UniProtKB/TrEMBL annotation:
Organism (species): Planococcus halotolerans
Record Gene3D superfamilies: Nucleoside Triphosphate Pyrophosphohydrolase
Source domain of life: Bacteria
SUPFAM superfamilies (alphabetical): Nudix
All copies of domain Nudix hydrolase, residue ranges: 20-138
An example molecular function term from Gene Ontology annotations: hydrolase activity
Spans traversing the lipid bilayer: none
Protein name: Nucleoside triphosphatase YtkD
Gene designation per UniProt: ytkD
Keywords: Hydrolase
Length: 152
């Protein structure tokens, strides 16, 4: 799928591994805790799924677990590769999307975010970050729902 994100960058979304020549070093994690979607409240952008960039020597799965913990206090119990997308920015970058389940949410000191926000449904009118509103995210969420892993 090809689309233009809300920053005006051309993007390509794939549900097949290694679909792009640009190595993924960014992660996004769509997870649930006790039947609710786990979001984080970014101090400037608003509500969004946790994610970020892998550090040197860190695998994408390790980065996903670390980012979820740092942004929400969420402890990942299970993590599955789901999709990836390529953003044709300067320089271009690829982001890997994981799905997961959270076993606990620890109270931690947060730097970048205001912490975990649990919601019953993603269809509600919320103060979502622009990252949650583009066509690629809509397609990812539709596929997550079709996967049947979770009911929304």
């Amino acid at each position: 799928m090809e689309y233009t994100d809300l920053n005006g960058c051309e993007c390509r979304l794939s549900f097949e591994r290694d679909a792009f020549q640009v190595e993924s070093r960014h992660v996004l994690v769509i997870a649930k805790f006790n039947g609710k979607w786990l979001l984080t409240e970014h101090r400037e952008r608003g509500l969004e799924f946790p994610g970020g960039k892998a550090e040197a020597g860190e695998s994408l799965a390790e980065a996903a677990k670390r980012e979820v913990y740092e942004e929400t206090g969420g402890v990942i119990e299970s993590l599955d590769w789901f999709a990836e997308y390529l953003v044709h920015s300067e320089p271009p970058f690829s982001k890997t999307v994981f799905t997961g389940t959270i076993s606990a949410i620890d109270e931690i000191d947060l730097l970048e975010t205001k912490g975990a926000v649990l919601v019953e449904s993603l269809d509600e009118d919320r103060a979502f970050s622009f990252l949650m509103k583009d066509e690629g995210m809509k397609e990812i969420m539709e596929r997550v729902k079709q996967d049947g892993k979770w009911e929304d």
